[in-house]
Each structure stands twice: as C-alpha cells, then as structure tokens.
Amino acid sequence: MTAIIVPCPHCSKTARLDSERLPDQPAYFACPSCKQRVAVDKRQLLSREATQAAPTPAAPAPPTAAAAPAPTAAPAAVASTAPANRRLPKLPADAVFPSGIILGEDDAVVGEVQRALAALGSEIERVDSADAARQMIINEQPNLCVYVGSQIPAPPYAAMASLTGLPPNFRRRLFLVLIGDNLKTLDGNSAFLYQVNMMLAKEDLPQLGAALHSGIDYHERLYRPYFLAAENKGSI
Questions:
Q1: What's the number of CA atoms in the CB half-sphere (13 Å) around residue 200?
Q2: Would 70 be classed as within a structural domain?
Q3: Please, are residues 38 and 15 in contact by the beta-carbon 8 Å criterion?
Q4: Between residues 46 and 142, which one has the greater pLDDT?
C-alpha cells in the first residue's frame, strides 16, 4: 500500500489515504477530524512526492590549479517555467452541452466563450452581475454558469460569493466554471478551494469544448447517486 498524506484546508489536520483505492481523477472525502469535504488528486500528489524524494545532484568538485581550462560550451536553452497545458481527451462528435449563463470581468473573453459555446450548441445568456446570475439560477435553474475573471486572487473569491453561496439544492444542480489568467485547467484541488466545479486557464480556451465535456461528465457521475435518490423521494 502506498499512503498519501492529504492536508485538510479547513482544519489543517492530515489524513493518510491508500493510493491504490483512489481513482485516477480528482475525488473527494470527508476529513476524519472536521468532517468537511476535501478534494484529492492522486496523480498530482504522487507526482509531487516523487519530485520531493528525488536525490539532489552533488555539486561538481572545484578544478585544481593544474587542471586544464574546460572548453567553452554553447549556452544551454533555458527551460520554460510556464505550466504545460493538460492533455484533454478528444471531444466526442455526439457531445451535448447544457445551456446556461455567463458573466465576468473580461468582456472580450466573455464574448469569445459565449461564441464558442454557441458553436457547440449551448445557448448562453449574458448577465451583468453575480447577484443577477444568482437570482436567475434560483428562478430559472440553468444547468451551466461560467464566470470569467481576470487575475484571480487566492480563495475565497469574493466576486463569486453570490454564486458559490447558493443553497445546496441549487448548487448541486449547477455546473459552475471559473475562467482566469492564472488558473490551471481541470485542477480539482483548486476548484474545490474556489468552490467551483471546473477551472479553465484562458490560454486553454481553444480546448474549452473538451475540458467542459470532461468536467460535466465527471460531475454527473459524481452526483448520479444523489440525483437518483432525490428522484425516488420526489424532491431535492
């Protein structure tokens, strides 16, 4: 068994999880200490632990006075520090996207996303504010809400408080997407901290369809038992 140490963002306690029992995609568990919902991404955590455990190369010994000067080598290329975009599965030809609403702080990107979703068959209505979006969600219950930010601050994101603070019965039905400059696409841990269902970096907008399809598919599988139980009881 390979144990993964997962810190709880709510109470700072840690939990030991069996990596072999975790799926290869972001998952959630209840913190054994405070019982709050905690996100865990096995692949990300195992990769981080492997990086930390890698031995540090020893520094080369200084040349002696009698050593001949080393030949001048061409300077090595500097590796890019920009995060590599996540490879996403190919978008199925029969993919269906829900309709919904969009708002945000970057008008140009809001328009770009609106047009991209329209091309995918999703009717997206633009709203002016988070409060207006909240009211529309309560009254009309759209299945999708996209918020386009600029430089996203550390969580919690106050600009989205009206949306992330929706009552649970509305929040579970809604697929909430956050798009911004400094985000990592499909980062489940960050999505949990920002209380959204999916994160998308602006640089990954060309992959919007594949990312959204992947996120919605996972969301539906995650909440399918809840929705089936709610339908059997006749209410949410």
A1: 25
A2: no
A3: yes
A4: 142
